[in-house]
Write a structure and sequence with these properties.
alpha+beta; Aspartate Aminotransferase, domain 1; 2 domains; two-stranded antiparallel ribbon; about 25% strand; globular
């Protein structure tokens, strides 16, 4: 999605606002449709607007909703964000740097980073296979978020319980 592209159906308004879109219409009743435009004039979600937050709580809530039916899910603050673990193995995290920190099979790293919004996570100055950073703009719709959640959950399930 570029600044000129209108968001598609199934788009989360709070997610759009988090990456710089603002409503182009006056507030309406819950469930009504809004159009969104890219707000290019200033920081959205700056510390002066929201106060300090270690990670995007809205993204964490959306992840929580996406994994609610999974067995063995726990949450733990780690890596500067809020991690979601499956049977003690990290699947993904609402990252303190924005977007997601995702744990995947090392062999799948090259394929997954072909997505323009995904890159290897850098830890202690080293790009790591099996760990991806997913930009917030790749999580705008629930379908897009669920795609990434599924990758992390599938890998965490493949590991022995801790």
């Amino acid at each position: 999605m570029t600044a000129a592209d209108p968001p598609s159906n199934g788009v989360c308004g709070a997610c759009l606002r988090s990456i710089g879109y603002r409503s182009a219409t006056a507030p309406r009743a819950r469930g009504s449709r809004r159009s969104y435009v890219r707000d290019l004039g200033g920081a959205v979600g700056a510390a002066s607007d929201t106060g300090p937050v270690a990670y995007d709580e809205h993204v964490a809530d959306r992840i929580r909703d996406a994994v609610h039916s999974e067995q063995g899910v726990t949450e733990k603050r780690m890596f500067g964000g809020l991690a979601f673990l499956i049977n003690g193995n990290m699947a993904l995290s609402a990252s303190g740097q924005g977007g997601l920190l995702l744990r995947v099979d090392r062999a799948a790293t090259e394929t997954l980073i072909s997505d323009p919004h995904a890159e290897r996570a850098v830890m202690r100055g080293r790009a790591m296979d099996g760990w991806l950073r997913i930009e917030a703009r790749a999580l705008v719709s629930d379908r897009e978020l669920q795609r990434w959640v599924n990758h992390g959950v599938t890998y965490a399930r493949s590991l022995p319980p801790r």
